[in-house]
Design a protein that fits this description.
Elements: E1 3-4, E2 7-8, E3 14-21, E4 24-31, E5 46-49, E6 85-87, E7 93-96, E8 107-111, E9 116-117, E10 122-127, E11 133-137, E12 146-149, E13 161-163, H1 168-180, H2 196-208, H3 216-226, H4 232-241, H5 249-266, H6 277-286, H7 292-295, H8 304-313, H9 324-344, H10 373-376, H11 379-382, H12 391-397, H13 404-417, E14 437-440, H14 442-449, H15 454-460, H16 462-469, H17 475-478, E15 495-498, H18 508-521, E16 535-537, H19 539-543, E17 552-554, H20 558-569, H21 576-584, H22 586-589, H23 594-615, H24 626-633, H25 640-647, H26 649-654, H27 658-677, H28 690-698, H29 705-710, E18 712-715, H30 722-733, H31 736-747, E19 763-768, E20 782-784, E21 789-793, H32 798-811, H33 823-830
Parallel strand pairs: 14-15, 18-19, 19-21
Antiparallel strand pairs: 1-2, 3-4, 4-5, 6-9, 6-13, 7-8, 10-11, 11-12, 16-17, 20-21
Helix pairs in contact: 4-9, 5-8, 5-9, 6-9, 9-13, 14-15, 16-18, 23-27, 24-27, 24-28, 25-27, 31-32
Length: about 850
């Protein structure tokens, strides 16, 4: 969608067509990005298009239909029957490029008064959104198609053009020709299409008359027929034989579901949440060595990356795979299950009240948990209690056979339903008063982070400033999802005022403070210790050994650890039952002090920050351990040994203080989870696996240049320009850290979404017409973070482009000035420097 109710939308929106009724085309929004208010406020309802919006430049079909080559016959009401148009207005008729008259429609030319436009040049007759009749003409002297109005809107509403009636002689001749048609077929009668059904019927007749040529499409049809299942009995047999050898049903289906999802993500989407069965079958055939030659000729149209993705997914079981037809039967079953799950999940409990109930010997009251069981219990402790069977436990056991898109759809729906409503402002370009303003002095924060004083760092960092500004805010305030007009579709819970930088928050500063705060949390001082004392590098990170050498754990105060060590010295005196109780209630047996309270408060706020960023589509560069954090949040079973191995491989091998380390991380995870649960529906996180939850929150850790290239749009440049070729080459040659700096430079975030469909807006590369200065130096590139755009000068050489781009991304400390700030604000902002 490019327009709605006569208004041109700032960003294109996507919609699914539902059907027609009373000459209107009904649709439902899939992604609404440019309207004020909540993003999906009204997004689930049905809306309509009228005739004026179904024009070139108004609607654009995503993908190509099979019958697009056959023209759709025009209805009578759009077909102007006349002997031509005569321009009767003294000022002539202005020809414009669009059906609607607005600033974006070009004036193509003017047809002088008295001119007669022949009937064959009058193509179409339409009403625009103002009710004015306009004609689409292809007048030779103008040289291009355009629209003219029948009358002037407003004032005396004088006529601009008038229709010339068909002469009576012509009508009589046509009647005589009709009489002779029975005896002679030399004169063809022009058919009339009164209703849309008449037009559709004629289109279908013409489509079926198309000659069937031998080409790739027929080969695909032949291949499709070979995969056809004739009966329900055959389908049941294929279902039974579709299990991967050596795996149980659940594990096999989980791998098949993962493989199918990866193929569907890499292929063009043909339907909501899926891909073509034929394309999927071709890719699966190519993954099996004995079937590659069969599909080689007809799979050339599929991108090679799709085959790589599928081969990587099934590489470890490649020799055990069942036939492709059996795999497709399992995929059909999984797709049917997920279609029903979309409707069923809102009615099913994800966390039943009887789970962990004290009535059955658990740690929780009936529905009121003492602690979040999945975050605190280890596998050994949990096995000591009766686990009542329930629908929710079965759902969690089968979480891997539900597609990530199905679960994400449900999570998004719940987040939309729990969004705090925000009333619109009288001025659609102004933010409502409910959206509070948060003041952040980034200049002072950068100076503080570069100092050696840890107290100054904790006081003036962006993270600490945000924590102070939001102290006392409820979760409801952070659950806002307001989208202001002209802000690029970015959801927000508050407005950011960057002190001393003179920049308007059109979404760039909002994303920037999240990125800066998360970066500070993982920042290390020269000695390798945490700057803010919120996250510490893991032992594997510090010693550069084992797995996860870039990971961070929750910081624990030395005093708090000492308390645990003291209790550990007496563990030999405890019975096994007492040890189990100590592990299960580790958070309550831990003695808190001022230092531990500060850490827990900071982690709780970090959870709120991460939850808000996740709600608003901002990936967080938060390298936390998979086992100790993400699998715990998703309540997956994982042993303490695997958790310790990811954090400290030396402690894992020597088995020293492993229980203490695991218990400390579980206790601190509760604070982080408590902050997240005030913003996100934490009960639903157990639907996901640990890897899926990490990807949802953190996005893609690697900046994929090919993915970024798929969503690019050029203004002033084209794909074939040398400077564009050099730009992508330079971006590929950068390290991943440099690419993160580049992404923050152009988008105020340092992680990309996981796939193309997750991008809210395209990446724009605009031509910067600045030329070389008097000293012979080329200008630097610039960016607009609010609108994800890069202004790139036309550099003559690749090395110059690389030098200028790296200098810009590594030395940009403030945002561009949208306005001139006053002296007081400048002094306040730069005082920190």
């Amino acid at each position: 969608m490019k327009r709605s109710a006569g208004r041109i939308l700032e960003l294109q929106e996507e919609a699914v067509v539902l059907g027609t009724y009373q000459n209107r085309l009904f649709y439902r929004l899939v992604s609404q990005k440019s309207e004020g208010g909540s993003l999906m406020e009204g997004g689930g309802r049905a809306w309509t298009w009228d005739e004026s919006e179904a024009v070139d430049g108004g609607l654009q079909l995503i993908g190509n239909g099979l019958g697009r080559s056959v023209p759709l016959p025009k209805l009578e009401r759009f077909n102007p029957k006349c002997a031509g148009l005569k321009v009767v207005y003294t000022g002539g008729a202005v020809v414009r490029s669009d059906l609607e008259i607005y600033d974006g429609s070009r004036s193509i030319g003017t047809i002088s008064s008295g001119t007669i436009i022949p009937p064959h040049e009058v193509i179409e007759r339409r009403h625009n959104s103002c009710g004015v009749v306009r004609y689409l003409i292809d007048h030779a002297p103008i040289g291009e198609r355009g629209w003219i109005s029948s009358r002037i809107r407003g004032g005396k509403e004088e006529y601009i053009v008038e229709m010339l009636p068909l002469e009576e002689e012509d009508n009589e001749e046509e009647e005589n020709d009709d009489d002779d048609a029975s005896s002679s077929s030399s004169v063809a009668v022009q058919p009339q299409y009164i209703t849309p059904e008449d037009s559709a019927r004629e289109w279908y007749t013409n489509y079926m008359k198309l000659p069937k040529t031998k080409d790739k499409s027929e080969d695909r049809n032949t291949f499709s027929e070979s995969m056809k299942i004739e009966s329900i009995e055959e389908f049941e047999e294929l279902l039974k034989s579709g299990i991967i050898s050596g795996m149980n049903n659940l594990s096999s289906d989980a791998l098949i579901a993962e493989t199918y999802e990866r193929i569907a993500d890499a292929l063009p989407h043909r339907s909501e949440g899926g891909c073509s069965f034929v394309d999927c079958a071709l890719v699966l055939c190519a993954s099996q060595p004995n079937q590659q030659e069969t599909t080689k000729k007809i799979s050339n149209s599929i991108d090679a990356i799709v085959f790589e993705v599928a081969a990587e997914s099934v590489l470890h079981v490649q020799q055990k795979l069942p036939p492709t037809q059996a795999l497709l039967a399992r995929i059909a079953m999984l797709r049917a299950l997920n279609r029903r799950a979309r409707y069923g999940l809102p009615w099913l409990p994800i966390k039943s009240p009887q789970e962990g109930s004290a009535i059955l010997g658990g740690l929780c009251g009936f529905g009121a948990s003492l602690e979040r069981a999945g975050h605190t219990w280890d596998t050994t402790s949990k096995s000591q209690w009766v686990q009542a069977p329930s629908i929710s436990s079965r759902l969690r056991n089968c979480r891997q056979v539900m597609f990530t898109s199905t679960k994400k759809f449900f999570l998004d729906s719940v987040m939309d339903a729990t969004t705090t409503p925000t009333s619109l402002s009288h001025d659609e370009y102004e933010l409502p008063r409910e959206v509070r303003t948060v003041r952040v002095n980034r200049l002072k924060a950068r100076r503080a982070i570069s100092s050696d004083d840890s107290t100054i760092k904790k006081k003036h960092s962006v993270f600490s400033q945000l924590q102070r500004e939001m102290r006392g805010w409820s979760g409801a305030q952070l659950r806002r999802g307001f989208v202001a007009k002209g802000h690029g579709g970015q959801k927000r819970a508050f407005k950011v005022k960057l002190v001393g930088e003179g920049v308007n928050d059109y979404s760039g500063p909002y994303r920037e403070v999240f990125t800066d705060a998360i970066q500070e949390v993982t920042d290390l001082d020269p000695s390798g210790c945490s700057s803010l004392g919120v996250l510490d590098p893991t032992a594997n990170n510090q010693t550069d050994v084992g797995e996860g050498r870039d990971l961070f754990t929750f910081a624990s105060s030395s005093n708090g650890t000492g308390e645990l060590i003291m209790s550990e010295k007496n563990r030999d005196l405890l019975s096994s039952e007492e040890r189990t109780l100590l592990n299960s209630f580790s958070s309550l047996t831990h003695k808190k002090n001022e230092s531990s309270r500060e850490v827990e408060e900071a982690l709780s706020y970090l959870g709120k920050l991460v939850g808000t960023a996740t709600r608003h589509g901002i990936p967080c560069d938060l390298p936390l351990p998979l086992g100790a954090v993400w699998k715990r949040l998703s309540e997956e079973n994982i042993s303490v040994e695997l958790i310790i191995k990811e954090i400290d491989v030396i402690a894992y091998k020597t088995n020293e203080n492993t229980e203490i380390l695991a218990a400390t991380q579980r206790r601190l995870l509760n604070s982080f989870a408590e902050g997240m649960s005030s913003v996100l529906p934490a009960e639903l996180l157990s639907m996901f696996t640990g890897e899926q939850l990490r990807d949802i929150v953190c996005g893609n850790p690697d900046i994929d240049v090919d993915l970024l290239r798929k969503v690019v749009e050029y203004e002033g440049y084209s794909e074939s320009d040398e400077v564009i070729f050099n730009f992508w080459e330079v971006l590929r040659e950068m390290t991943n850290s440099e690419r993160k700096l580049f992404l923050q430079f152009v988008w105020a975030r340092n992680r990309l979404p996981l796939k193309e469909s997750d991008f809210e807006a395209p990446f724009k590369i605009q031509k910067d017409n600045k030329t070389i200065d008097e000293d012979g130096d080329y200008p630097l590139p610039s960016a607009s973070t609010c609108f994800f755009s890069l202004s790139l000068p036309e550099y003559p050489e690749k090395e110059i482009l690389k030098q200028k781009l790296l200098f810009a991304i590594e030395n940009s400390t403030t945002m561009e000035s949208d306005y001139q700030t006053n002296d007081v604000e400048i002094n306040e902002g730069w005082r920190g420097m």
